Give the backbone structure.
Amino acid sequence: MLNIFKSELLSDLILNDQYFMREALKEADEAYKSGEIPIGAVVVCMNRVIARSHNLTELLNDVTAHAEMQVITAAANHLGSKYLTNCTLYVTVEPCVMCAGAIFWSQLERVVYGTSDEKRGCSKTGVMLYHPKTKVIEGVLADECAQRMKSFFLKKRG
Amino acid sequence: MLNIFKSELLSDLILNDQYFMREALKEADEAYKSGEIPIGAVVVCMNRVIARSHNLTELLNDVTAHAEMQVITAAANHLGSKYLTNCTLYVTVEPCVMCAGAIFWSQLERVVYGTSDEKRGCSKTGVMLYHPKTKVIEGVLADECAQRMKSFFLKKRG
């Protein structure tokens, strides 16, 4: 009985990619509310969120203030290590060239993104910009991630 | 006579790419002294240095703290504008993929670099990562820029 109970508890505790992408989506929603392009990101280490942020290019008046850049810096700060070799980055939209470059340097173990970026996604360059050891997973909660972007740009044009 | 005098003065005042690369080299020397990979950068607007920095990845424990990233952020802060459309970035070593991506977003008018980076220079990807409007000039004081890097890595290995 105890074993069944334990295994039920464990199944509740399985924190999967969708769970963490929802955390990144919460950040995207924060961005949306403040008039920023709604992209959110979290960095996860040992099943714990160790850094979270969203796009702040307008607030900081800084083109480099993408969600990914900020969580990479914050996660390194949290761990006291430049390298994020045992971490996963969750981001609602495909990283751009700049962020792919930062992901490369950080040696992140995994990158999980929601929707692709047809215009500025780094995969549009046609070359592999990530570190060869970094596993890249796309399409997690893609529709929800894309919906934020669509709403934002529709509202902006309207 | 006055005209000749004026034109002589003007010729003294011509602040060319070599002049500003020497400013970037001063920053590279600061990096060297503090044990950072010796790469320096300045951003110039209307013949004035508006931002200067050097590689700070060790001090800040942050892989994103490249010289270029910092001067782009600082220059935008100085100008109160995200975009650096009338500015030139001088950097002693060829930008990496991350920095090329940041240069793209910043819409810098010109990028002038010293020595190429055979391993991690963005040109090694084989694709154009800069904004098509950004003019890129390479090889300004290349030997002096390369010399700093060689000394640094020789000393590190020794």
Summary: Chain A has a mean pLDDT of 92. The longest strand of chain A covers residues 48-54.
